[in-house]
Design goal:
This protein has helices at about 15-25, 50-55, 55-65, 85-95, 110-120; strands at about 1-10, 35-40, 40-45, 70-75, 95-100. With about 120 residues, it is of the alpha/beta class. The chain has a five-stranded mixed beta sheet, with helices on both faces. Strand 2 and strand 3 form a beta hairpin. Helix 1 crosses helix 5. The longest helix is centred in the N-terminal third of the chain and has 13 residues, at about 15-25.
Amino acid sequence: MKKAIIVVGKHFAGKSLTIGAHLTALLKIKRRARKFTLRGKRGFLRSQSFEESGLDVIATIKKYFGYDLLVFAARPETEEGTKFKLIHNTLLKASFDVKKVEIKNQKEAPEKAAEIFKILKS
């Protein structure tokens, strides 16, 4: 089963730190790496939120559809300009089992990375 995780948090909450530093360490890949393999499954991650990067959500998800595991970042559903619902719905339509991991501050980054890693491994 394909899995996708959306790491959700306000600006400067620690989304990039969680994914780019702590999760990459758990996956045993370089900090700037985006591709990984876990238990024979191919994965891809982006630590910068869609809101900050300005990337087209649908085109990006279509581009990485062939991966088994995806990790993306987004702003909270309640925040103006969020792309969370678009990301979530596009991943569902692409047959991914979607989980949301919320982060409130940077101190939670190691714990949240471990939570994401556990979901990816399951």
